[in-house]
Input
Amino acid sequence: MKKSNLLLIMFALISYLGYSQTELYRGPLKKELVPEKILNSLTKDFPNVNIIKYEGIPITLVKGEIYVDSNEDDYTGPYDNYVISLDGKAGRISATYNSEGQLLNTFEHLKNVPLPKEVLATLGKDFNGWAVKGDKVKLTSYHDGKEVAHYRVKLEKNGQIENVIFDEMGKVIKTTKDLKLTM
Output
């Protein structure tokens, strides 16, 4: 399987696990146990943020297959993937790196950051009467030298809450429930 497909599968797996009720085990790490390649990439990728914590994700890729070891008592590493929690001006960021220091994806909780105009246009057109509630989340994956971003927006209307994921062009990718859109 191509490397870009593996990265896409891993991003989907991590995103899915982020939405599920159970949490993927991530082992807390001391900075000394994080590969130097990742620490160098962090300095380059996120120069003006505070590092909150380092964690290893016990996912192993073998011939295109993904294996997750969630038995925290037995897993000793080294890890194929690492999550670094960061705090910056725009909000909190979780950045996932592979063991070679390549940034795979980010999960950014944005505070007081405007959405792209295309997403705002779709919100105004297709979600009439829905209000944006809370922080917006920017999901970004990096593969084949390209950055692909999605935005998760929490909406409320008449006490009903929905999480909607948009691409950068404002296209609805996923909703948590079937919405009655005003089109």
Notes: Residues 140 and 149 are 4 Å apart (CA to CA).
